[in-house]
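Incident log, support desk, overnight shift.

02:14 A customer reports that sequence design results differ from what the structure should imply. Their input is reproduced verbatim below. On-call engineer (initials T.W.) acknowledged and began investigating.
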């Protein structure tokens, strides 16, 4: 992490796992904009030729090559150890950064001194908007005082494209490495707001995002399992036991009801696959919230 003074305006950190084709397009979109920027790619033991591709085609990239998949949070923390920028920009490999975006995010942070972290506008390849800004945290409607009194009206932004002050991320000692893949953006935003900073949104900075590329070979139920695990960790870390019990009851009631209605309607569906996937999801909700012991951090 930043130890003394910044050598660059910005350190761009990309964590890659098996998305070599996307990574090429991402780095190509960055290259024309990297004036006084440091670019770090952490490869989590990809089975494709990501590492060789970077070495051959992008010599200006600082490559950290892991021999195992350490997860998103831990890999980002590896890069933070060698980052030398005034700001750090976390960027997914399945993105393309529109012209002017890098300059826009740095200017935004320079001007808005009360903003600790900010997200950008994110769109799909067809130009349609993606949800990248949330005003509430998961399960917040079942809490009491846990997230009251925080500055700003943005709860968290999507981790696929977000910029943070290096001094803040250093103070927090990076991401919580217990979050392997999902939930780390929600956690980081809340931790920063608890320090008294605002989470911002940069409308003029635009990034195209494919989404889910590193998980494309996994079954939907496997992806949901990872998301539920991260969600529970977020609850245990930031909410009281009473709030978590309320969240668990609400999830169980919804899951029982959805399973009941899906079983009623599935026989009449021509394409049963979506319904079966939903059944798997809600059965997993039951398993997760019925068997996991609540341990508040």
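02:41 Re-run completed on a clean worker. Output:
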């Amino acid at each position: 992490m930043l130890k003394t003074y910044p050598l660059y305006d910005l350190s761009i950190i990309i964590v890659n796992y098996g998305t070599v084709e996307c990574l090429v397009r991402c780095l190509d979109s960055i290259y024309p904009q990297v004036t006084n920027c440091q670019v770090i790619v952490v490869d989590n033991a990809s089975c494709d030729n990501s590492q060789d591709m970077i070495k051959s085609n992008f010599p200006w990239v600082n490559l950290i090559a892991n021999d195992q998949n350490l997860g998103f949070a831990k890999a980002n923390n590896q890069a933070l150890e060698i980052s030398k920028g005034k700001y750090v920009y976390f960027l997914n490999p399945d993105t393309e950064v529109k012209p002017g975006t890098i300059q826009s995010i740095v200017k935004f942070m320079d001007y808005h001194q009360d903003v600790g972290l900010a997200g950008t506008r994110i769109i799909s390849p067809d130009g349609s908007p993606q949800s990248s800004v949330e005003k509430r945290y998961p399960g917040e409607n079942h809490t009491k005082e846990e997230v009251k009194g925080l500055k700003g009206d943005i709860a968290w932004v999507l981790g696929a494209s977000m910029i943070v002050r290096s001094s803040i991320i250093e103070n927090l000692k990076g991401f919580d490495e217990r979050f392997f893949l999902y939930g780390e953006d929600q956690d980081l935003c809340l931790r920063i707001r608890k320090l008294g900073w605002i989470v911002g949104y940069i409308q003029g900075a635009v990034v195209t995002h494919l989404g889910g590329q590193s998980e494309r070979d996994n079954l939907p139920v496997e992806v949901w399992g990872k998301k539920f695990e991260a969600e529970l960790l977020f609850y245990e870390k930031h909410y009281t036991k009473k709030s978590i019990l309320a969240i668990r009851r609400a999830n169980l009631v919804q899951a029982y009801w959805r399973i009941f209605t899906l079983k009623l309607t599935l026989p009449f569906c021509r394409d049963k696959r979506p319904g079966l996937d939903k059944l798997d999801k809600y059965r997993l909700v039951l398993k997760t919230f019925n068997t996991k012991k609540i341990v508040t951090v």
